[in-house]
Queue: 3 jobs
Job 1
Amino acid sequence: MNFKIFLEKNIENYSNNFLEVAHDTNKVYLKMIGYAEQKGLDVYVYNLSGGFMWNRYGTLMGYTSDTVTIKHGSNILICGEHGEVKFTR
């Protein structure tokens, strides 16, 4: 089964991922990677509900709920939920 289809069918199980802020009545939602896909020369990353999060130039190597691995030239970038580079190789 395609991971994107799995998420669409099971999103209600993941939609309650939030943290309560002790000093405020607002909820702070966790940013989790739902899926990543290659579109042309860019990698696009989406959240669990399919909303766009960020994109970066390169070739998609793989992804988890926390990171996306992108090959950029001879470098391999491991990017976090916000698109920040966590590691390079």
Job 2
Amino acid sequence: MTADIQKIIEICRLDAATPSSVELSSLSHLAIEHGVGGWLYHRFGCNALRSHAMQTMADYTRKVAIAQKILDTFASEGLNTYIIKGLHLATNVYPEPWARPTGDVDMLTTTTDLAKAHRLLNTLAAKPNKYAYRTPVIYRSFMSHLPAISIDRVCVEMHYNLHGADTHYNPLYPTPYDTPTLLFHLTTHFLRNKHLAGNRLGWLLDIALLAHQNVASLQSIVCQAKKLRPSLSADIDDVLSHALYLLPQNEQQSCGLTIARLTPQYLLPKRRNPLYTFLYRTRRILHFFALANHYITKEDNTKSYIVKIKNVILDFKDFVLYRHR
């Protein structure tokens, strides 16, 4: 398996030689699993990947229609919203939309517009989501998006933070979702998953293609991305050095950044020191209950204490399942 992943890494390089159809067919399932099946079909063509690419294009078309419906609805109410993550990358970074698989429709708004955004999303949904937005002070601190909602059988997540590497950041104020912010989001998202279940090769390909688009100004973009969270500079450099391995050799030399050989081991989850994990989780739990106490005693006087405590319990369940790992 490790040897096959290394083969896919080498084939995914932007200056890779055309592999044999037999070799590409044998790697097709693993390529799809790592989110690069569409990219390899775009580069080399392969009957084993054709149906995957066509399905990806059909999914993309359906999700773009949903995203446009949401954008139009929000614009009519004066809400500032961006499309982010997979759909944004497929549209703006990849040469063809079907070269990049997309999951949910991820959108970004501000914390001040969050309640209004949730209300508008419910007007579009077949099944309104009553679960979301119970305790705003907790959501702002620990969650990056409202719980997913289904619109025309498409999963939509409304973000109000770019969550990655245990940090929250909303770029709408003072800056938009520009290239440095996108680079910051992609690298810190990779870092976060490195501490969870591991990563897939496609997430490094996202970074490599963004760098390929902006190779002439890449050093400046990287500097601006690091300024968003200076404490993560070394980690961002580490992710970039491996992602840039996928660039052509002439671009690796001209970009002026360190390049590290990308191996399958780099995609595996990182083991944390048990003492660090215990202290980190203890701090997060104490922080959660401090916010919960603030919410129960000082926020939203229209609700009874019983309703507030119920909301905190439900949010704690969400916190444990999805964020406290």
Job 3
Amino acid sequence: MFLKLCFTDIKKNKLINICFVLQLTVIMVLAVLAVSTVNARIRNYYPFKNYFENKGAFCVWDSSRIDFGKDFAQYVSESLIKSESMVGTYMTYASCKEYEFSTITYDDEIFENYQPVLSSGRWLTKESVNEAVITQNNYNLSVGDELTIIDDYGESKYKIVGILKQNTPIPGYFTSKQNGEYSYKDFYYAYNHEFEERPMMILSKGDYYKVLGYQTLIRYNESITEEEILMNEEKLYSLGCLKVQDMRDISTQSKKVMRKDLSTLVPILISLLLLCFITTISNSVLAVKKQLRDYSIMYMCGAQWRRCTHFNLVRTLITSLVSVILVVIAIKILYSTNINNMFFITINFYTYLIITVIIGLNLILSAIMLRIIINRTSPVQVFKANHGG
């Protein structure tokens, strides 16, 4: 009976409720986009935080100077003083028989720690064998298709298990920056197949020759001295590095970049919450004033003012849930458009949190405004005012 009254009231005041639902939907969609943008700006820092926040080096390799005749990654590691770990991208001699692709592969650590944005399928794991993830392309390939990979060792069939979203940052591939201070962002390359010579294929483990190249993160033991760091830097240049940056400088610059990004986006989130605050107050005032007559009748029939507050909360909750449904629909539509290439819409804990905060704020303010208004007016006064008594 209680819920039936709530739905009847919503239907009776449908114009106000429709406006409220649409306003709340717009606010929540904007909040999701803002949170997604913040997440996209900082999410790439954390997979390799262990490197960015410790002593080490960020290396950009000159492929024309790399020694392809040996296990180059192992040789680099053994040539450095107090090198603890290394993660990076590998060039391959593998090629696709059916189509033209640029092919790379990664260390297990990248497969394990990094999760790119995919348009379909899944990312590779360190256990993956003879699998591949490709970028967007004009070949009309889809998840589940098989391609023939050719190498000096022969031919192998590789199954496509995922397709990257357009402009998805690819770790350790390429940077156009030659001078200036590097940050964690320079370890990533936004791959857009429309601007590239050919699409990209990322291979899992398999029978093909690979060699360390493009970009590498190196972590040193914390006991390394400044002199030893400089010696390692000289060694890396001699091995074929085009650019070597001290990881402590990378960390400092990365934090500056993240603070700058957040200083731009956090005010937007605060503005959205203030907009929610103002919208809720204005809608609550309009709705309560319009429904005071109904509340007074409920009171005259034996319901307490507190019961009217519960009625208002349930009505507000129902309209808020309708807004959430519309938000889900809107996000699905936006996710399939080019807008997602700008925002990288992500549904995660923080997305749920901001939506919950907005709904919670809406419920609390609605209840407060109702109490303020009805506490200043007696039910008899409201009833007489609406019946000329």
